[in-house]
Amino acid sequence: MLAQQINTLFQQRYGYRPLLVRAPGRVNLIGEHTDYNGGFVLPAAIDKEILFAVGLNGLSTARLFSYDMQEAYDLRLESEPVQPGKTLWANYLKGVVAQFQRRGIAVPGFDCVFGGNVPIGAGLSSSAALECGLAFALNQLLEANLSRLELAYMGQRAEHEFAGVQCGIMDQFASLHGQSGHVVRLDCRSMEYQYFPFNSAAYHLVLCNSGVKHSLASSAYNTRRQECEQGVAVLRRHHPQVASLRDATLEQVEQHRAELGPVVYRRCRYVVQENLRVEATCQYLQAGDMAAVGQQMYASHAGLRDDYEVSCAELDALVQIAHSQPGVLGARMMGGGFGGCTINLLPAAVVPAFIATTTAAYQQQLGLVLETYQTTIVEGVSVLPPALATH
């Protein structure tokens, strides 16, 4: 058991008992590219997680150890503000320390051993789990009494400033606010949120990793943001209440189609429709209509492929393979696009057949090996009882 190994390694290295914390990765059921448009997302925390053993050491140094990389990093905490460095994994943790310092919370020396099973680069937010786990542990040890939402913002800022990734708030929010057996609808403008039931025993979310990441992902992401801003500027001239695409209606987008131009029109139409799909999905979850949830997922993928144009041949093939199997309720690409994973909704009983069929078809059609991850929806970041780490 990983928690036991991390706990044992900490005590061997540092000679005392740590606080044990687990921080989950996340999936997003539906609501893609809506976050930076002030819209809605529907994520959940999953049972792929990073485990931390953390304790105050009475020194003026943070001694960090990556269990997965088998690599140590020492960080002096005396007078200088913490700065990013060349060790990439350490930057995420240093970024969190910097956020505490910025709030005037002195961070004394501490020890930290961490390791996990969140696949790197699969779009399950391993970086957010890393940030949120340490932030949560330090909040406990320093008795800083920061809320989970404040910790999420600190994780987000750590990623902006120390990893150079301008992420939205969804990943950190989901890692900290997850609830077992529920997805959470987050309003990315007001930060209000609401939980909706998801029967994890009867239905599973299986992720299929395309194994590719096309180079245009980051530049295309920035372009999409600019295109959405252009759309808002056009719509606001006629409808002053449109502060973001979240405020726009399909009627308004259609009405100004010519002025928007073909590309910006399609981008705006996708975002407005995707927000409507999140709302519809929540109603179907409430009613227990999982087949209807699946149809929203397929519609989301079609919009991402045709209107937002952030899919790729590998993701489209995976969704098509899923669609051809009678047991599968829904599938779509998840994340920024141009590679990464598809998320697939299916009854628990058909999971083994789905994985076998999809793996074989992907290999046959594209000559690529498929990695799949079965996930269960779990609680957000939490303290592990010491007993759990000794079994």
UniProtKB/TrEMBL annotation:
Domain of life of the native organism: Bacteria
Residues holding Mg(2+): S127, E159
Entry protein name: Galactokinase
Higher taxonomy: Bacteria, Pseudomonadati, Bacteroidota, Cytophagia, Cytophagales
SUPFAM superfamilies listed in its UniProt record: GHMP Kinase, C-terminal domain, Ribosomal protein S5 domain 2-like
Cell location: Cytoplasm
Function statement: Catalyzes the transfer of the gamma-phosphate of ATP to D-galactose to form alpha-D-galactose-1-phosphate (Gal-1-P).
One GO CC annotation: cytosol
Protein encoded by which gene: galK
Gene Ontology biological process terms in this record: galactose metabolic process
